[in-house]
Design a protein that fits this description.
Blueprint: E1 6-11, E2 16-17, E3 23-24, H1 28-40, E4 43-48, E5 60-66, E6 69-75, E7 80-83, H2 90-106, E8 110-111, H3 119-127, H4 130-133, E9 140-141, H5 145-152, E10 159-163, E11 173-177, E12 184-189, E13 195-200, H6 203-214, E14 219-223, E15 235-243, E16 249-258, E17 273-276, H7 277-285, H8 287-312, E18 317-324, E19 330-336, H9 342-346, H10 350-370, E20 375-378, E21 384-387, H11 390-393
Parallel strand pairs: 1-4, 1-7, 7-8
Antiparallel strand pairs: 2-3, 5-6, 9-14, 10-11, 10-14, 11-12, 12-13, 15-16, 15-18, 16-17, 18-19, 20-21
Helix pairs in contact: 7-8
């Protein structure tokens, strides 16, 4: 029996045009790969944004990869929507929200990937699992500079102050107090991801600077963890875990990202490099310990995916970032429901790159086979089904979500 073709729409925050009116897409290589792989599986893949469904019009316009370029053209309404929106302002957020509301009213569709709430909410939900709690750095909401200074006095290695929303290491700070001089030292990355270091001889000067730097953005406080090797280069482990064709969680790839010696982060956008995980961890910890660490990371990753689904509804994929301190303890640092693939492209892991593209498409086909168009399933939450009304299809977007 011939498999029915499904329409797989990738929604992005905005599609620009060049001088020749050709579409300029975010993540073009990723979407090109999805389009090409979709054709092999009988899945019609295209990219669209809020402008793709004009007001008072039921015809959707999207961009398909044809003749070695993206071409904007009429496309069928999607059976499955893959959310890859990274908004730069509230106007994009509102336009996308309104368009998806109109789209759902015209034709119900499946959402491939759910969303996660704030980092603090994710932390609180994971902390409820005793097995995961020991792998979570203590996290609390930043409220005042006085609170930060009081906590800094108790932490010999200092504190990390990081945005509650946003990625790529932007806006992160490491605050320490010199034990003898009493001066405050700050190492960090600006909003434009430039590294900097500052020293303050008085608490008042620091508080004044911090107020301007943080402004009204929500921030979190965590203890500073020594997550660099003997070479002084910070490193972390990026895991991509995705739903497979049978709706089970599978590890698609593991990579180690290492930063510049003395830098605060290992993020690729901050000048870091990607390496095969087993190779780099073996060099740092030895082969036997490396195998133990990777096995533990695999276990934690599946427990994390299941716990987050049980709390926040069905998910399709997660990017999980881990730190490993010098004692070999594994720390879960981040969970991202819109993960990138650049680590696997840069470290030459072709199998991980292939799986990262193929699995969302195969899972989308599974969704359309198992569920009626008017329902969204949460397979890991005791089989609950959530009716896909516009209200729960369109939970508020996080305006400060940025692609990592």
């Amino acid at each position: 029996m011939r498999t029915q073709q499904i329409s797989f729409g990738i929604i992005v925050a905005s599609i620009a045009n060049d001088e020749a009116e050709q579409p300029i897409l975010p993540e073009p290589s990723f979407y090109k790969a999805l389009c090409l792989t979709g054709k092999k599986h009988g899945i019609d893949v295209y990219v669209f944004d809020a402008a793709g469904l004009p007001p008072l019009n039921h015809e959707l316009y999207g961009c398909r990869w044809e003749d070695d370029r993206f071409i904007r053209q009429p496309v069928p309404l999607p059976d499955v929507v893959y959310d890859r929106c990274f908004f730069i302002d509230a106007a994009q957020q509102l336009a996308c929200r309104n368009m998806l509301g109109r789209l759902a009213a015209i034709k119900p569709y499946q959402q491939l990937n759910g969303r996660l709430p704030s980092k603090l909410d994710v932390y609180e939900s994971l902390k409820e699992d005793g097995a995961l709690a020991r792998h979570l750095p203590r996290t609390q909401l930043f409220q005042t500079a006085e609170q930060l200074l009081e906590l800094t006095a108790r932490q010999q290695l200092g504190l990390i102050l990081k945005p509650s929303s946003g990625m790529q290491g932007r806006g992160i700070l490491h605050v320490t107090r010199h034990p003898l001089e009493g001066t405050l030292h700050v190492k960090g990355r600006s909003r434009s991801n430039r590294s900097f270091t500052l020293a303050f001889s008085s608490d008042d000067a620091f508080k004044h600077w911090l107020s301007r730097f943080v402004h009204l953005a929500p921030y979190l406080i965590q203890p500073y963890l020594e997550l660099s090797g003997e070479d002084g280069k910070p490193f972390d482990v990026r895991v991509l875990i995705q739903k497979g064709e049978k709706s089970n969680w599978l590890i698609s790839g593991v990579a180690v990202r290492s930063g510049i010696a003395g830098s605060l982060t290992s993020n690729l956008h901050g000048g870091g490099a990607a390496h095969p995980a087993a190779q780099l961890l073996s060099a740092k910890f030895g082969k036997a310990e490396s195998e133990r660490l990777l096995e533990q990371i695999h276990t934690i990753s599946k427990q994390t995916a299941e716990q987050l689904e049980s709390k926040f509804g069905r998910l399709a994929e997660l990017g999980l970032d881990y730190g490993i301190d010098r004692s070999g303890h594994v720390w879960l640092l981040e969970a991202n429901a819109k993960p990138g693939r650049s680590s696997f492209q840069r470290n030459g892991d072709q199998e991980a790159e292939r799986l990262s593209i193929e699995r969302p498409l195969l899972y989308a086909r599974t969704l359309t086979r198992r569920l009626s168009p008017s329902f969204v399933a949460n397979e890991s939450a005791n089989g609950r089904l959530l009716h896909a009304s516009p209200n729960n299809l369109l939970r508020p977007f996080n305006v400060q979500e940025v692609h990592r």
